[in-house]
Each structure stands twice: as C-alpha cells, then as structure tokens.
Amino acid sequence: AGEIIANLSEELQPLKWGNRIVIPSSEELINIVPILINVNQERLRQCIINVLENAAKYSDESTLVRLKMAVVSGFLCVDVIDCGLGIPKDEFELIFQPFSRGSSNTSEVPGSGVGLALVKQLVLLMEGQIFVLCSSNQGTTMRFEFPIYNSISA
Question: So what's the pLDDT on residue 151?
C-alpha cells in the first residue's frame, strides 16, 4: 500500500483537483514497518483515487485533501481527510449504497452515486472495510482498513 500511495502524487498531478491532494512524504512512509495485506494493488489504487476525487469534489476548491496511512491494532488504515461540509451521521451507511448520494450539497456536484458503492464492494473483496470515521461541518475522514497478515522482515 505504501508503494501505491508513494506513486499517487505523479498520477494525480495532471487532474484538475490533483494539486490539492497532500500525500505522505517518502520519509513518513518509510516509518511504517513493511507489512503484508491481501489486496489487488491496482484496485486499491483505483479505490483510493475515487475517494480522493469525492473529497475534492465536496470540498471548497481552496482547501486541501489529506491522505494519511498508519498501522492501528493490527490493521493498515488509510485515511482521506477533507474540509467539506460533512456527512450527516444518519447517512454514513447510505452513501455506500448504489445510486445513493448524501443530502449535503449533492445537487451542485456531478455524480451518480455509484462510486462509493463500487469502492465498498472492491474493498470487501480485498478483506477490508471502508467507512466514515468522523464527519462534521468542517470536514470528513473516510477510512480504509485492511487486516495485516504479518510483518515482512526488512
């Protein structure tokens, strides 16, 4: 996952919203012990990009979207943190349903409500989870969680 995140910067740069994404530095990624997770790297990359794009779409164009990675209680956690209007708590599950979109300013933002539903299905197939970790009127943190199978000896 660290490799995927490290390579995202170049890939995102040409996108309209790509310059607003703050990705962990190489030094920050090196501090994470090499680990083994069961994912399809290409699908995980696509899932992360989809959530980053949503975060950028639902945040003011003058704000940054942050991507963070950490190991927490036997799980690799990848967080996407935006500065948008937030998601009401009663919609935390709804936004992952096909063709469903949250109620916050969705009429002004293009989309069909398919992206997060597809991301959730792909993440589940990779034995992970995606969920809204927290949300307020100052932003939302979406978390990907994948079980760590064991550490890789460096």
Answer: 59
**pTM of the complete model:** 0.89
Q: Could you tell me the two tokens for 22?
A: 């703050």
DSSP-assigned letter for residue 103: S
Query: What is the rounded distance in angstroms from the CA atom of residue 141 to the CA atom of residue 69?
Result: 12
Give per-residue pLDDT as tens, 41-56: 999 999 999 999 999 9
Q: What is the 3-state secondary structure (H, E, C) of 11-43?
A: HHCCCCCHHHEECCCHHHHHCCCCEECCCCHHH
Q: Pairing state of beta strands 65-72 and 129-136?
A: unpaired
Two tokens at 153?
């000896």
Tell me how far apart the alpha carbons of residues 139 and 132 are, in angstroms, rounded to a whole number: 11
Average pLDDT, the chain: 88
Decide: residue 124, CB within 10 A, 0-12 exposed, 13-18 middle, 19+ buried. exposed
The more confidently predicted of residues 33 and 124 is 124
